[in-house]
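User: Teach me something about this protein's shape.
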Amino acid sequence: MNGKIQEAFGKISKNVKWQRVIIAAGIIGIALIFLSNYIGTDSGREDDKFSVTTYSTKIESDLESVIGKIQGAGKTNVLLTMENSVEYVYLGDSTTKTKEIQPHIRGVLVVCEGGDEPVVVERVTDAVCKALNISTAKVCVTKLSE
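Assistant: First, the predicted structure itself:
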């Protein structure tokens, strides 16, 4: 079987027509690779604003879910404020992204049913600080009005 493959490859490699087809396919492949860097560069710019909203909404919903499970917290709403938007680091003058820096969290407001009980406030504050790696000064926990 191995000998048949070598024989077939030998016939194709000696045929000038096949050599040209293989070289042309290689050149087209390389050209497509280079062109892929330039196709769709504008769409990435529109995603910058959208990703900040998605990022903060995801964190808010995750926090609401987790805080709602803390004993005594009850129904929970979370508001997250960001200091800046997503920052992208590009490779030299190209459009190739090398790094995406997530926005910094300015503050977190947690409104929950148990927000008037000191033990619950302590638990919620501790959970938010550890989950987001922020200081207690950036977290406010208050009672949900009925």
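Now, about its shape. The two ends are 80 Å apart (CA to CA). The beta strands are 76-82, 87-90, 97-101, 105-112, 139-143. If you'd like, I can walk through any region in more detail.
User: That's plenty for now, thanks!
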